[in-house]
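Entry type: protein chain
Record version: 2
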Amino acid sequence: MHEYSLTRNIIETAAEYAGGAKVRKITLVAGEASGVSGESVRLYFGIIAENTPCAGAEIEIESVRPMLRCKSCGTLFERKPFSFECPCGGEGEPTEIGREFYIKSVEVG
């Protein structure tokens, strides 16, 4: 249910940025480990955006896969199922990559 308040904030932020102009497109970045459902955001957006400058705007969501950083070599890599092993043989640890959620851009016009 937190997607409802996130979506409301996205609409408010985009409308403020547009300064009264029509919002055509909003691009979001959502890490797969962020806990945010892109489909829920899309669903709520269509409802909440009615009668706002964002009504009818396109929502694009760029997904970011979670990455681990190797403790031995420092390389970023995607985790394989049931393993934290880096291609070099070292052990990976979680990073913030894949946990992000933010507005990347707002197109108006």
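Comment: The chain has two helices and six strands.
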